[in-house]
Design brief:
Layout: H1 4-10, H2 16-32, E1 37-41, E2 44-48, E3 59-65, E4 70-74, E5 95-99, H3 107-118, E6 120-121, E7 126-127
Antiparallel strand pairs: 1-2, 2-3, 3-4, 4-5, 6-7
Helix pairs in contact: 2-3
Length: 129
């Protein structure tokens, strides 16, 4: 994972209410997938297992920063059992959830989805144990 200082610098221009969401998601990802690689890009951050491949083949999730919300995106989201109907997106596999408010976010549910995604194997379309 990147240093806290690097991430804070990256988020300097992000409104505080959205920054809090990003930092909480980052904490959850670090807890669930401490060996994940974290990469910053123009729209946010990506998390993946470098030893299994890159951001697509070994992707866990992405935090995408929009003007008025955060998207928690899953590159293989179409294959995850998402039982609350929160997923959006129409691409072949990628799905995302919009997060507008820290207080209204279902944090425990995000943990479940990140956990599932961290074990997903795109080659078998199932989760690894």
């Amino acid at each position: 994972m990147l240093s806290t200082k690097e991430v804070e610098h990256y988020l300097e221009q992000t409104p505080s209410e959205l920054r809090d969401i990003v930092l909480e998601l980052r904490n959850i990802i670090a807890e669930i997938a401490p060996d994940a690689t974290e990469v910053m890009h123009s729209q946010g951050m990506s998390y993946f297992y470098a030893e299994r491949g890159g951001p697509v083949s070994a992707g866990i999730c992405q935090i995408v920063i929009k003007r008025d919300h955060i998207r928690l995106a899953f590159i293989h989201g179409a294959f995850l059992p998402e039982q609350r109907g929160l997923f959006e997106g129409t691409t072949k596999a990628k799905r995302y959830i919009r997060i507008h408010s820290y207080e209204d976010a279902p944090w425990d549910y995000f943990k479940e989805l990140i956990e599932l995604s961290s074990h997903f194997d795109p080659y078998t379309l199932s989760t690894r144990e």
